[in-house]
Amino acid sequence: MQNGILISQTIWFIMLVNRQGARKGSKSGIRGVSWDETNQDWIVSVKGTYYGRFKSIEKAKKLAEEKIKEQMPYINK
Questions:
Q1: Euclidean distance between CA atoms 2 and 71, whole angstroms
Q2: Is residue 40 part of a domain?
Q3: Could you report the per-residue pLDDT of 1-28, keeping only the tens digit for each?
Q4: In this structure, what are the phi and psi dihedrals at residue 68, rounded to the nearest 5 degrees?
Q5: Is residue 27 in some structural domain?
Q6: Does the residue 76 lie in any domain?
């Protein structure tokens, strides 16, 4: 269960440090990125469109940011 503890600690740290337009209570802290507890991966979904799953939050964040810029150019980041 050591991996589960590490993931939980990582998620908690991200929640505290990285609030980039994400909803309150978001585990990723990144708009468009959510955590799937069952599959243990990050899901990228922007404006209801699914873009994929990633084991790395960095890859999920990069794709989410690209899609947000494409679909919501009026959001200043």
A1: 38
A2: yes
A3: 455 555 666 665 555 444 456 666 666 7
A4: -65, -40
A5: yes
A6: no
Considering only CA atoms, which of 39, 30, 50 is closest in space to residue 7?
39
The two three-digit tokens of residue 21, written as one number = 């337009």
Q: What is the pLDDT of residues 25-71, one digit of tens each?
A: 666 778 889 899 999 999 999 999 999 999 999 999 999 999 999 98
Q: Which of 27, 29, 30 is nearest to 64 (CA)?
A: 30
Task: Domain count for the chain, please give it.
Answer: 1
Considering only the C-alpha atoms of the chain, give the largest distance between any 2 of them, rounded to a whole number of Å.
43
Q: Does residue 58 lie in a domain region?
A: yes
Report the C-alpha gap between 35 and 71 in whole angstroms.
22
pTM: 0.65
